[in-house]
Amino acid sequence: MISLLSLFDDIASTLDDISVMTQTAIQKTSVLMTDDLAVNAGVVTGTAAQRELPIVKAIFIGSLLNKVISIAGVLILLAIYEPLLTGVLLIGGLYLVYEGAHKVFEKFVQRKEVQKTNNEVTITEKQRIKGAVKTDLVLSVEIILIAKQSISGSFLNQLLALSLVGLAASILIYGLVAVLVKVDDFGLFLIKKDYKKIGLGMVKTMPYTMKGLGIVGTIAMFMVGGGIISHVFHIPYLTAEAIQNLVMGFLVGFLVLYPVDFVLKKMT
């Protein structure tokens, strides 16, 4: 009887440790989740209303698979040679600041060219899903890597905690995406039910909400990527941490923008 009670006590203690580590990891990766939310909400925008949720569902399934790949990859690298994780984390950070710089460059420098290209090229549903899942894979790796820094203990504890973080991230992100893409439809429903003021308000504010999410997502890319670069190279904080990370991400992002674009053009 005493042994059974001790076993239950050990299980409860382990679950409590996993819960605490999971909560801390989710807090540390919340900025990346915001970025993932903004990116995927933008992917669904512009599609037929009846296809919005099926697209979100397909990307969600891909996201779950990405989390499995990310967790397995991180734990394998940890077992083989832990310093490799730092290299992978740095590459992900550089990718994030590059993507942030690319978004800013397209918005303010290549706006006319991008609009023309978007008018001429029709992106299929499969291409949307494939592109979103690829982006989610990069962000998934970064989420799991950053989460891993807050997780310790036995292999089983780490696996359970990382699995919970990955599952929570996908559910939170794509649950919110599903809600966001249906807000305007709900607004139209309210209009039909004679709740015109509320319905029109929801419909009119959604474009601004989506634009706001895009801005937040871009800032998040610079902040998270800049924070990773600062951490990897042990750069001392010269001012507030958030401001330094943002400035670092912005500068490095535009520093690597041209070389990366040049290499990508050569590859294609």
Walk me through this protein's architecture.
This protein has one domain (16-181, 217-267). Helix 4 (83-108) crosses helix 6 and helix 8 packs antiparallel against helix 9 (196-232). The chain is 88% helix and 0% strand. It is globular. The chain is an all-alpha fold and 268 residues long. The longest helix has 37 residues, at 196-232.
Write the layout of secondary structure elements.
Blueprint: H1 2-28, H2 30-44, H3 49-80, H4 83-108, H5 111-120, H6 125-148, H7 155-181, H8 183-192, H9 196-232, H10 241-267
Keywords:
mainly alpha; about 270 residues; globular
Helical fraction: over 70%
Main sheet overview? none
Shape descriptor reads globular
Order of helices and strands: HHHHHHHHHH
Number-wise, the strands total: 0
Tally of DSSP helical segments: 10
Radius of gyration: 21 Å
Structural class: mainly alpha
Number of domains: 1
Low-confidence stretches: 7-12, 116-121
Average pLDDT metric: 80
Q: What is the beta-strand fraction?
A: under 5%
This entry's quaternary arrangement is single chain
| Terminal CA distance | 68 Å
Outline of the structure:
With 268 residues, the chain is mainly alpha-helical.
